[in-house]
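May I ask for an example protein's residues together with how it folds?

___
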Amino acid sequence: MDLHILEHRLRVTSLGKAGLERYTHGLIKLVFLRDKTRCKFFSMTEMPDEYTLVLDEEGFKELPQTDYLQVGEAIWLALNVVSNGHSSTNSQTIGVTKIAKSVIAPLAQHNVSVFMLSTYQTDFILVRESDLPAVIGTLSEEFNIYKEENGESVPVDCSSVTNGFIKPKNVTSPTVHPVLSPKNQFCVMSLDPDTLPTIATILMDVMFYSASLKARSADQDLDHIRFFSFSLIDGYISIVVDTQTQKRFPSNLLLTSASSELWRMVRIGGQPLGFDECGIVAQISEPLASADISAYYISTFNFDHALVPEEDIDNVITMLQKRQNGDR
């Protein structure tokens, strides 16, 4: 298998909802006016209290710097696993599950923190730029590693990149965080970018105007959580919405899997997780991989979220709760 280090240098930010009106111009430009910006990597995920924005340096320039915007200190690089020339494998499982044991677990064991972003098309593993030598040193035995330069994939001389790098001792077992599962059903979809203007009014309403005070208060019990994710990365669109929001979009324009599968969420973390702890993604993805359960995984500024097939949600919650209680 091949591991590609993409060209994008990314920032992870959190936008408080109280400041949203100051950012609508820049966000509309990034989503709908692709010819007016050089941004190639943009992701926006809405939670009850904030928006997590992951975007490249060109996109970051479109955001005004105010007190409403928290910016993570690190520069992040996006990794993508490619098998047989495609970013998906022949495995029946999809999402983060298929790379749990080959990528996520080894990085966790060698003290590398990851930020995950699953999309309809593929899975992006974000690592700190400063951790790149550790990443290459950890994964070079398993993967052919390439780095994108000016649109071309160039083989990485692993020996030179990792020169002087000593694999750290395995870290102690990470904190096992509590999980909860709201009752929403979710859809993972895509859209032809050329049809984006057709749904622009609906999409802007969902992105900017659906978070009313009534909706926010209803989210506080986490019974039905407010969650919406939109990504536009290298020309490909991915959308995650709950089934109620999906009904607002023209069904003939949305692309879904052949099975039109519905997904349930597992939210990880009772308190904000931060970026320094290692192994959070691994503690969720490894048990799912062992059980052959597919999962999309979306990290945000404060919490992590796994989307699993609806029919598996009870088994997943039981499995993760046993893990939390120390059972095997």
The first helix runs from residue 24 to 32. Residues 94 and 294 are 5 Å apart (CA to CA). The chain has ten helices and 17 strands. The longest strand covers residues 2-16.
